[in-house]
Design brief:
2 copies of one chain form a homodimer.
Chain A: H1 2-13, H2 33-43, H3 51-64, E1 68-72, H4 75-85, E2 93-97, H5 102-110, E3 114-118, H6 129-139, E4 140-143, E5 146-149, E6 156-159, H7 171-181, E7 184-188, E8 196-197, E9 200-201, E10 208-212, E11 225-229, H8 232-242, H9 266-296, E12 303-305, E13 312-313, E14 319-323, H10 330-340, E15 346-347, H11 367-373, E16 376-379
Parallel strand pairs in A: 2-3, 2-6, 6-7, 7-10
Antiparallel strand pairs in A: 1-11, 4-5, 8-9, 8-13, 10-11, 12-14, 14-16, 15-16
Chain lengths: 386, 386
């Protein structure tokens, strides 16, 4: 039986974990986390001002090769602000994958816009840029260079490629869509810190990009996120909007627009700075874990272990087992068997277009995502397993 | 000269701080902050799940006498969710003081509603409930018990009393407004943790109440807030809305409405739990600081030190010097002289109705707030000064 064979393989891979619960992803605190956090508490600067949040932003920019990085309270808030800065207005449509975490869709609604759902492809688990191009050819009309959805009459203002489980999307395809249809790119790189597309860090190729440091991510700040951009003006605006749009003054409290309380606290940034120092080592272990899984599961014909796309380097955030077509009915059996054995696994998110708040949102044919949803299983991915 | 006399009095009060900068408010970490934060890091549960956030909520409920407390990422997010749960809908009007921090107004706009600005009174620095009652008598018409602003045609769905600098608003006046005009109360207690009105904790008297644990507050979690409510259904909804509206399931990711990523991280709650243990001691010191200031400045006829209202107990979050009418032109001179001497002071926030985003919002006569704005100076208020 397939589920039992999988469970036994896990037990073989991790002989020391036989009686231990193996979580899907746990953080690793092996470096200066405690030292910096203590230093932060000792300084009393634990909140919205402090050296750690500035240092964290600098080091994040350096690591990703981004000109600017603005730390936020979480990835969702970073997405919200990035969409606003990308020019998304009320009643616009924003193109997003249906195969994503709900933050991608929610942030579109926070900006007053409507998510328009796109299909994914097998090779990257991210947006199927060829199919999307053909779809847009059909439904988009350019009016003075503004892309309008012919069916709804609404402007399509942005496309949000999400690098699923850390695997980079086919960005060349996204660039072509952006250029030909005049649609702004906001990269949802919440899952892909450390992932490269043609040697460029994910999140640095769109007008804005977004990172997340939630507890289940490659590195964590407890809760946190960041906005990446190469444009100094946008960086300034991002900082302004995430800090209640307060105008700088020696004592006056004046705000020139509706802003947000989205600044990452210094306490959380202190942890993030230490995590960032260890990131190269964590990434190596996660890559190593992929090799271990690939080898251990190589004889299974019922599924493959998701591999980084060609021309890309993945951070292998969440290791993924993708069942071959025809084995869909095995998914729940495998989830039952592994979780019952203390090996935490989970399926894909429920596709966003199927959720109640988005039932009536526009979408293209989503048959590959529909199929992938039935075949994806995420398996334990913590760096300490590699 | 008044400014110099004030500076000299500060130097006399704090002889050991002669060459030290005295901030407006700094946190105090004298208890288990390090211990709990380290325990949190060691457990690896630093993010949205963990024992500290549950314990923090329980202890917060116990301290305030609230049936339920739901920890959030900051006070602004707590206000946003509270307004939604109070039934505020798009295009409604929400009654708020013009003399408040911008979060009060911003959260109204996040809910899609319009802030409607109210005047304050000298005795509490909070809403002038008598003047407001008369104003509402004029502009409100009840249509099947729904309060409609006759001038704008919009529904007035909530009133948000804010306990300014920790001093409780005249809640009896607010209750009468709520009852007679069918307007729901959401208490903005961001500044008043530890403040009581007739022995009831601020934030527990409205349908929902809000706390803040920003770095400048009486206790801090780095960044954080909480929603208080006495209604179990609302508490459940608050938890649901602040955790992306995800339905509980052993592995599925399904969400039944537009939710928010507003959960306080366990790391921040660990700090909060330790801070809460010290809160009674901190409050005592802050009360003591008020006595010190009252005594030291008792001979000044140009201003008074703001005292807790009758029938109320204030947390004395921010100590406040209120200039008598006629001394308005001294405000900036005092701000200049004190800040130049390393004694941090600041004026009132710019009144909200004067800010660009709210210029066209409805408002009553705001002359007391207008006058207070020119006469308020917040002076150093850290617990360690008391």
């Amino acid at each position: 039986m397939l589920p039992e064979r999988i469970v036994n393989t896990f037990k073989h891979i991790f002989p020391n974990k036989k009686d231990t619960f193996i979580p899907l992803h746990e953080p690793s605190f092996q470096g200066n986390e405690w030292k910096y956090v203590k230093e932060c508490i000792d300084s009393t600067f634990v909140s919205s001002v402090g050296k750690f949040v500035d240092d964290f932003e600098k080091e994040l920019a350096k690591f990703t090769g981004s000109k600017f990085a603005i730390a936020t309270v979480n990835g969702t808030s970073a997405l919200h602000i990035s969409l606003l800065l990308a020019g998304v207005k009320e009643n616009d449509e924003v193109l997003i994958p249906t195969l994503s975490f709900i933050a991608t869709a929610n942030s579109v609604t926070y900006a007053g816009a409507i998510p328009h759902f796109l299909d994914s492809e097998e090779s990257t688990l991210g947006l199927d840029t060829e199919a999307i191009y053909s779809y847009l050819k059909e439904i988009v009309v350019l009016q003075s260079e503004i892309p309008i959805n012919k069916k709804t009459g609404k402007r399509i203002s942005a496309i949000v490629p999400m690098h699923t489980f850390g695997h980079p999307v086919n960005m060349d395809g996204i660039f072509k869509i952006s250029k030909d249809f005049h649609i702004t790119i906001v990269e949802d790189s919440a899952e892909s810190l450390g992932s490269l597309y043609l040697n460029k860090h994910t999140g640095t190729m769109g007008k804005l990009g977004v990172l997340s440091f939630n507890g289940n991510k490659t590195i964590t700040t407890g809760g946190g996120g960041a906005i990446l951009t190469q444009d100094e003006e946008l960086a300034k605006k991002a900082k302004h909007l995430t800090t209640t749009a307060k105008l700088s003054h020696k004592w006056e409290y004046t705000h020139d627009q509706i802003g947000y309380n989205y600044r990452m606290p210094n306490l959380n940034a202190a942890m993030g700075l230490a995590q960032l120092e260890n990131l190269p080592a964590l990434l190596e272990k996660k890559r190593n874990l992929f090799s271990i899984y690939s080898q251990a599961f190589s004889s299974f014909i019922e599924f493959k272990i998701q591999k980084e796309p060609e021309n890309s380097k993945s951070n292998y955030w969440l290791q993924t087992l993708v069942l071959e077509r025809g084995f869909e009915e095995q998914r729940n059996l495998i989830l039952e068997a592994t979780n019952a054995s203390g090996i935490m696994t989970r399926p894909s998110w429920t596709l966003l277009h199927k959720l109640k708040p988005f039932e009536n949102s526009p979408c293209m044919d989503l048959s590959t995502a529909e199929s992938l949803e039935k075949r994806i299983i995420n398996i334990p991915s913590s760096s300490n397993l590699g």
